[in-house]
Every structure is written in C-alpha cells, then in structure tokens.
Design goal:
Largest sheet: 4 strands, antiparallel
Strand content: 5-15%
Distance between the termini: 85 Å
Oligomer: single chain
Number of helices: 4
Helix content: 25-40%
Number of strands: 6
Amino acid sequence: MATHDYSIANQSFPATRSDINSALTAIKSSNSNSTAPTTSLVSGQLFFDTNNSKMQVYTGAGFNDIALDASGNLTVTGTLTESSSRKYKTAITPLPNQLDAVLKLNPVSYVKKSTGVTEMGFIAEEVQEIFPAVVAKDAEGVHYSRLTAVLVSAVQELKQQLDDQALEIKELKKG
C-alpha cells in the first residue's frame, strides 16, 4: 500500500474499532490534496485533504461528491437518501390532526455561534416539547427531514378544511 492508502479489514467488533481508529489517525496525519495518490485509490476510500481540512470519499474520478469539514459541515453534491421502506418499519400508524401542533412551532432566524453565519430553523428544546421524536439526543439538534411527515399531515388537514368550507359555501348559495 502507498502512504495514502488505508484498508480496514472486515473483522469482528474489537479488532474493527482498533483498525478504524488506526486508519483515521493515519489519514488525518499524512494526506493532502496536493499529494493525493492518483493510481492507488479505489472508489469508496476515505481521504483527508489537509489543504482544506475536509474528509472526503474518493469516487473513482475525484473527491467532490461528499466532504466533511473540520467544522462538522457535511456537503453532499449528490442526493442524500434516508431509508424509508416499509420493510424497515413496524407499528406504522397515520399522523392525523397535526395542524395545531405545527402552529405551535416557532420558526426563527439566528446567528450560529461556531460560524457567525445567519441561518433559519427552530430551537431544538422548543421542538422537543411539541415533537420529541424529531429531536436528536439531549435536545441538541432537530431531524428536519422527520418534520416533513408532520408538515404534510398539517397541509392535508388544511386542504380538508378548505374542501369542507367550499362545500358549505356551495350549499349556502343553493339555499
């Protein structure tokens, strides 16, 4: 293996953790984009670019499809897909009547302390009071994608209210 190639064998648990830790330490300590190997990397291999402090995955053609930088920002130029197939789920139940709960959400604008960048979103502690299932451990983050189902339910409820009102108006006009 070249100095930038790291292979983690598919082993049972204790050895795997040790292999991963050793490989990540080596990746962090000796890689930079300017010295990236061009012939020995294989698709799917991790690469740490010390020039811009990004952990990347080699795609077979380059390093641009996914990057995790030193600030914890994950950039994906492709599509981020979460598993959602019925085969992964049990106890599936509808989410009716979410409108009142959605109206309790408090959308805010804020400046993120770690970056100084103005962002929009929610305060995790506030969301946890309304939708605990969409808040990450210790109320430090919101799983925004999980809010989608709740928001769709609220829109469906609004649509039903509009349909009911339209029908009532039509009946009143007849009368």
